[in-house]
Amino acid sequence: MFDFAHSLKFKEKDIDLLTVGELLVDMISEGYSDSYEYSMYHRYFGGSPANIAMNSKRLGIRPLVASAVGNDGLGLFLVEHLQRAGMDTSCVQHVNEATSLVVVTKSKSTPVPIFYRGADYRLTYTEELRSALLRTKIVHFSCWPLSRQPVRSAIEQVIRDARRNGVLVCFDPNYHPALWEKGEDGVKYIKTILPQVDIAKPSEDDAERLFGKDTPENQLQKFLDLGVKLVILTLGKDGAIASNGQETVKMDTLATQVTDTTGAGDAFWSGLYTALIKGYPVRKALEFGLAVSAYKLQYTGAVVELPELETFKTKYQI
Amino acid sequence: MFDFAHSLKFKEKDIDLLTVGELLVDMISEGYSDSYEYSMYHRYFGGSPANIAMNSKRLGIRPLVASAVGNDGLGLFLVEHLQRAGMDTSCVQHVNEATSLVVVTKSKSTPVPIFYRGADYRLTYTEELRSALLRTKIVHFSCWPLSRQPVRSAIEQVIRDARRNGVLVCFDPNYHPALWEKGEDGVKYIKTILPQVDIAKPSEDDAERLFGKDTPENQLQKFLDLGVKLVILTLGKDGAIASNGQETVKMDTLATQVTDTTGAGDAFWSGLYTALIKGYPVRKALEFGLAVSAYKLQYTGAVVELPELETFKTKYQI
């Protein structure tokens, strides 16, 4: 199915990409400082799947965000942000929990984000969500909604109905133990999800958290062995390595300037999805992923102004 | 016991005031703005009991804070803030939940705070807390820790052991339905706590949320009927009215300039406690409460630099 030289065949649908999961506020301290006195924070639109949807719209496809926010000021901020970007917010559910929030205090040492999970894990498999799923070509989700009930059940239903209806199932295995409830083996659970996934894009850290330290080739193989059909392992400055089980390709980074790595992974997904939807062969679509990621790396922020996908062709000689 | 003309007799103890409950971060938007674009927030030390403890130390007594914070950057910030003020932090518990956070986006209309409760409700009745309770003259708590388990059980144990050991039980009945878990009748529960309380200081809004709309005198009587020994109903610009069941006193505000009302109630408690501990008669202690509150109202912020209690005597002619 994922022959690198061929493009993917999608049925005609009116949504190209449905992202399901976290839509949240990132509260990030201003500048880098380890000073105790440091006390200003910026409020940002956040949540990796929502960022991918925003990027993909700018690149030229039709995404839809399915998420849950609280009936509060931060939820309103997120919904208005989507609407200002021209996004349909009909699949954003409003629930009686605080809008999920991540606080990041930047630091020269390791900045440890603090997760305040509220509305995001209250997402349910509504009739609207089911209907959107049947109308999309690709569905995307990360580990966030899998880490906790009741949204986990919603994602399980999404996967089941996606597979029954020929929707491409794409998963960001961004596993982190801090997201999981104490006492549950998140790694074990993720390994029950991977066999149902068409495309997974782990980073080296993700792979290590799931499978322990190993060579990139071995890590790829572990995902393939579990049944993932196309695995892309991103290697930071060393580019990426991808395999469909028959063929493995190694690709260099296209980045020339690295200003901020936040959102680089989401940018990769966005370029990949947009290129796949636009009918580029898988190998080219991976290059578009690297190109959009390289573009994003030049700028600060998780979501940056992206031009249409086609402009990347000449800029990055794809 | 609360004869207005007499001072309270305390046993000799090495802590004057133990505050038990919420210690949290307030993330407050900069300036007043309803603009969607508005995105800067200030991080503040917060939690009403902790503020009262900070104030009381500045006024000249020996307070101790018993709270729970997360093992994270915001918890560290709170603990360091206490330490810089010279406070003993041995009763601050460190738990595996995110440090509790309140996000307030200021607005010309009603700014609705969003509560992110984490560590604060994980406070437990440890041996350290029990030991501190037996060593204090006064114990203070608000509705926050009563709203949720397991900290509710800790407070119930605090109340029981305080009453057994002659510790004055003081309660801020700042009831708000948003704090309570859905489905539980918080008002009904608070009414089971009030009979065990020596001093309660509701605001008019608190009283209305608990008992419905009524005259100040009738509201006072409802608290007294439930068994509270001294009730102080604060009336904003109209001062306060207090009753011990035999005698009722009406006091005018001492405020001449109102810059920021945040923390005015905590300032009142702080002045009252400090004066009671320093041996002033109850009536005078109430005036010190109003004086410290009036002083605080001139400045911005929940906790302001307060001089020693005695300076208020001449400044406000007490």
How would you describe the overall organization of this protein?
2 copies of one chain form a homodimer. With 318 residues, chain A is of the alpha/beta class. Chain A has a single domain (15-307), classed as Ribokinase (UDP-N-acetylmuramoyl-L-alanine:D-glutamate ligase, 3-Layer(aba) Sandwich), CATH 3.40.1190.20. Helices cover 34% and strands 20% of the residues of chain A. The first copy, chain A, contains 10 helices and 13 strands. Chain A has a 9-stranded mixed sheet, with helices on both faces. A 4-stranded mixed sheet of chain A has the order 3-2-6-7. In chain A, a hairpin with a 4-residue loop joins strand 12 and strand 13. Chain A starts with 14 loop residues before the first strand and ends with a helix. Chains A and B meet through strand 3, helix 2 and strand 7 of A and strand 3, helix 2 and strand 7 of B. Strand 3 of chain A pairs antiparallel with strand 3 (40-46) of chain B.
